[in-house]
Amino acid sequence: MSRRNNVRGPTSALTEFLKENNITPTTIATRAATQNQPIAGPSNSEQADVEDEAENPTRRKRRNRAAVTSGYDSDDLDEPESPVKKKKTSAAAEKSKAKKTAKKNEDSDHNPDNDAYTALSKAFRGNKPPNGSIESCAECEKEFSVSQYTMAANPGPGFWCHPCAKKLGNDPFKKPAPPRKRKAPAAKRTIVNFEERRFPTLVETCINIISNHIDDIEAFGEIGTMNMEAISKAISKKRSLNSENVQLFYGAENTILTLYDVTKLSPTSLITLGHLNPNLTTLRLDYCGLISDEVINSWCSSLPNLVHLQLLGPFLVRAPAWVAFFQSHPQLQSFLITQSPRFTLECLQALVETSGKTVTRVGLREVGLLSDEFLGVLESLSGKLSYLDISEPAKSCSDEAVNSLLGAVGSTLTHLNLSGHIELTDDVLHSGVLPNITNLNELSLSNLPLLTDEGVARFFSQWSNPPLTAVDFSRNPSLSTDSFIELMNHSGEGLHSLDINGWKDVSGKALENIGTQARDLRKIDLGWCRELDDFIMKAILEGCKSWLSEVKVWGCNKVEGNWVHSGTRTKAKILGIETHTSM
Amino acid sequence: MNEDHPMDDSAIASPEDWVRLASNDGYTFLVKRRVADMSGTIKNSLDTSGGFAEAGTRTYRSQERGIILQKMIEYMAFKAHYSNVGPKEEIPIHELMERMPPEVVLELLVAADYQEM
C-alpha cells in the first residue's frame, strides 16, 4: 500500500492523472475521517487490518480508474467524495459482503464506512496513528494518547484531544447518523394486515353489543325459547360465549339449558351457572373442558332437580367427584359424557347403584378406561336401558362381554352405538343383537373392520326387528352389495338417515334401490361408494323427493352433478361433488 | 318450466347495478349490488351464474322484518365502504355499534348468522 521504495514502474494514465492532481490515499482518508468519524466499535479496525495487505494493487487500480471516469474536477476534492467513494470499492464490496453477512451488524448496514458501496478502501483507515500512541492535539497542542475515539481535526491535519473535541462541539462518541433505510413497505404491511385488518362481522358486532348491555336484560325484549336456541348456536359458533354474555341464558325458571360451546367459561362461571339456574332438569354443555371437581361438587347441591346431563369434554373431573355427584342425584335418567380418561369402574358402579332404577340413557363415548368390566356393571340395568352408547373406546371390548350385556339389556334398547370396538366380529350381530334386540330404532356400528359382508347380510335377512330409522355402518370397507341389499330389504321403508360412507364396492345397481326402497330418507352419506354416478343420483333424488335434505358424496368420482341439466331439481344439499365448489 | 330460459338483461351483473331487498312486512330497500354482496347468502341468491329465480328479478325476499333488514343494510354499506380503505385508516366500529339499538340486537344476531355476515 504505501510505497516503501522509490521504484516507479510504468503507470496507467489514470495513475498519472491522480499523481499530478495530488489525489492520494492520505488526502482522501483525511477528508473521510473528518467528515465521517469512525464508529466506536471494534469492527472497523479489524476489517481495516485484515483487508489492508491482500488486495491492494487491484483495488487501487480500479479505484483510480473509477475516480477519473467519474469526471469530476480534480481540484475540487470535496464534491466527488461520496460518489467516488461509492465506485471505489467494487472489489472491497465482495470482501465486505462476506464479512457483513457473517456479522449481521445492523449498524454496519447504515454506516457508510461499512457500506459496500460507499466504504472507503480499508487502506485509508490506517491514517490514524495506532491506539495508545501519543499525539499532539491540533487545537491546544497538549499531548494525549490516541484512542479509538480520537477525532480528526476538521480543518487540516492532525487530531484533537478529547476535551478539545468536545469543546468544539463534536461528540467523539456519537455514531454517524445512519441513513434511514426504508424497509420494503409492502412486506411489512402484509403481516400487519393479516392480524389487524379483518373486518368484524355483524355477528361479532352484535355479540359485542349484547355483552355491553348485558346488565339491561330488559332491553332485549321478548325472547322465546326457540330463539334462545338459535342465539345460543350463533354465539357458540365463534366461541364467543363468555362469562358475561352467558348470563343472557340464565333464569331461575329455566328447566332446560343447552350451550354449544362453553370453552371460555371458567370453573367459577360454571359454578355460578348452577346457582343461577336452580330449577334445571336438563343440562347439556358442549366443549366444557374447564369443568373441574369443584364445579361438579357445587352442582351436587345447586342443581337438585337435574335428571338429564350431557357433557362433551369433562376430562378434568376425577372419580371421587363423579361418585359424589351420583350419590347426590339418585334419580338421574340420562347420563351422557364424551371424552373422559378419568371415569373409572367405580364411578359407573356408583351410577348404577344410585340411579339404577331410573337411568334409561347411558353414554360413555371415548371413555378411556372402558373395558369388559364396565359392560358387566351395565348389565344390572336390565329392563330399563333404552339408549346405550359406548363407542370409540381406547381399547375394544370383546364379543363375549358385549353379547352378555346385550343379553341383559337388549330387549329395551332403542339406540345402540358400538362404533369403534375393532375386535368385535359377526358374532356380536348373530349372538348379541339378533336374539336379544327387537325394538331398536337406531344402530351405529361404524368402524368394525372384522364384520364380513356375508355375515352382515345374513344378519339383516334374519333379524326380526322392525325397520330402523337411523343406520350408521360407515368405515366398514369390507361390507358391500350383499349387505346393502339386505339392509334395504330390512329397513328401507323406515330409514331416515343412512350412512354407508366407505362401502367402496357397493354396486351401482344396488344403490339405485335407495330411490325405490327408502323414500323417507332425510340424510344420506354415500361417501366413497365409487360406483355412484349421475344416473343413480338422479334416481335417488327423484325417489326421495319428499324428505331429502342432505346427500354427501365425497369421494364419488363419477358424480358430476349433471342431473340438474336434465331437469331434476331438489332442495337437498349435495355435498362433495369434486367438480363443484358449492351446489 | 323445464327448460332453462336465458336471462336476458343480467347476463353480466355489474356491481353498480341496483338490487332490491324486500322485508317480510312490506318494506323494500334499493341498494347497489356491491353493498348487497357483503352478505354471503344474498350474494349467492342474486348471483346470475346460479340458477335462482331471484337473480332474474334482482329482488331478494328476506325473512326478516323491516327494521332488522334496515340495520343489516346499514352494516353492509358500512362494510362495503371500509373494505376498500387503505390499511392505515381506522374503522370506526363504535359508530356502527351505536346505530344498533339493543332492543333489536338479538334478532339481528340470529338474522346475521343466517345471512353469513
From TrEMBL, chain A:
Residues 23-34 have a biased composition (Low complexity). Residues 132-169 form the DNA repair protein rhp7 treble clef domain. One of its GO terms (biological process) is SCF-dependent proteasomal ubiquitin-dependent protein catabolic process. InterPro entries: Leu-rich_rpt_Cys-con_subtyp (IPR006553), LRR_dom_sf (IPR032675), Znf_Tbcl_Rhp7 (IPR056451). Pfam families: zf_Tbcl_Rhp7. Residues 1-117 are annotated as: Disordered. Residues 35-47 have a biased composition (Polar residues). Residues 103-113 have a biased composition (Basic and acidic residues). GO terms for cellular component: SCF ubiquitin ligase complex. Signal peptide: none annotated. PANTHER family: PARTNER OF PAIRED, ISOFORM B-RELATED, RNI-LIKE PROTEIN. This is DNA repair protein rhp7 treble clef domain-containing protein.
UniProtKB/TrEMBL annotation, chain B:
It is found in: Nucleus. GO terms for biological process: ubiquitin-dependent protein catabolic process. Residues 19-78 form the SKP1 component POZ domain. InterPro entries: ELC1 (IPR039948), SKP1-like (IPR001232), SKP1/BTB/POZ_sf (IPR011333), Skp1_comp_POZ (IPR016073). It comes from the Eukaryota. GO terms for cellular component: nucleus. Keywords: Nucleus. It holds the Pfam family Skp1_POZ. Gene3D superfamilies: Potassium Channel Kv1.1, Chain A. Belongs to the SKP1 family. This is Elongin-C. The lineage of its organism: Eukaryota, Fungi, Dikarya, Basidiomycota, Agaricomycotina.
